Amino acid sequence: MEQEMDGRIMASSAVMLALIPSVVLSGLSLLATGIWVTVDADPILHLLGPFSNHFLEFIHIGLFCIAMGATLLLLALLGSCGAHTESKCLLLTFFSIILVIFISEVAAGVVALVYSSDAEDIIRAWAIPALQNGYGTDPIVTGIWNTTMTEFKCCGFSNYTDFMGPELGEQNRTGLPSSCCSINMDPCSSIEAARLPVQGCFDPILKSLKEHTNIAGGVAAGVGLLEVAAMIIAMYLFSNLDGKAS
Known about the structure:
Distance between the termini: 13 Å
Mean pLDDT: 75
């Protein structure tokens, strides 16, 4: 009976050690995803001005992924030591921290879903005023909008008429941004922009944000499954070691 229990413990330890590389890969995946989301999203946050204050929690999921990824890398070492030495203390610590991380990831996922479902309404409510208040007066906002319009091949938020307000009209006497004309005229006239209208930037920006959400969500789901498997094996080892000690 004791030999059978020892065999089960050894097998579970082997499975646990086999899962460690997956935990390392999960940590690296979260790190990479978090860095990508954070670096790519910063220009969009500045671009959307006041809207960024409402969407900041969603974007900061990137920072959350970075923190969780780094923690998983440290936990991989902890779990490896616990399985190799059959230490109940290390295994219990590993299980507890993984459980906290898993619950945090679920909470972050709920926040991401809430904000992504409201993204369209929030963007519409805030982005156009941000464009009209910052473009032409704030060099950073102006530069980001110009870069965004060039990259996405779009004009304004809805279309070229976003640059036709009283304040923007005064600032843009020399013409519209060159991206607002399909042949990239500089300056671009409102007549030419109306003749061959260029799409607004709303759809490309929304698509980009959703792509970030989907990729981050897919990575988090895969990591979550590995975490559940690691917790089950760690608790199984912990329980069997308790029986073995008895």
